[in-house]
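Sanity check

After download, print the first record. It should look like this:
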Amino acid sequence: MSDSPDGRCTNLRADGKRCASALYQGHSSLCHYHLSRQMRGIADGDILAADILSAVGNFQSAAAINIALGKIFLHQVTGRLSRQDAVALCYNCQLLLQSLPAVKQELKDGGYGRYWQKETERILASNSDLCHLTFTSLLPNGLGPLKPISRSQPATPPAPEAVPPHAE
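Expected structure tokens:
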């Protein structure tokens, strides 16, 4: 007995429309594509979107977009995101990065320059949540919030240059 009286996949897309594909032979509610994704443990689009968007704020920071790119990379490497979807998302991130100078200028002209700086500081100082998404042994060393260099610390003097011997 089928859960789908019309023989179509019951999976709903993000826009609320139902998948139009025929049911996979022997399955009561999913087409081959959605059954395959379910069997591989690939999360629904809303779960991936929520994760990618959770730490990026309003996309008005290169650091925020970099976090999104890192999450896209991680989801692609772990098989949760298809190569095609990752390429499209990375292209969108590239467009966002290209628009940042204009956005920053608009914020500055509108008197929101300090807001930009505070938002960037918040993003850079927050802990990465990548360790919740995969095994920490797979993640690069140095994962964690950035620590700003204290302006009160004296600069390290440059090392003395080697003096070439005098020619006789």
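If your output differs, re-run the checksum step. Summary of this record's structure: Residues 83-109 form the longest helix (27 residues).
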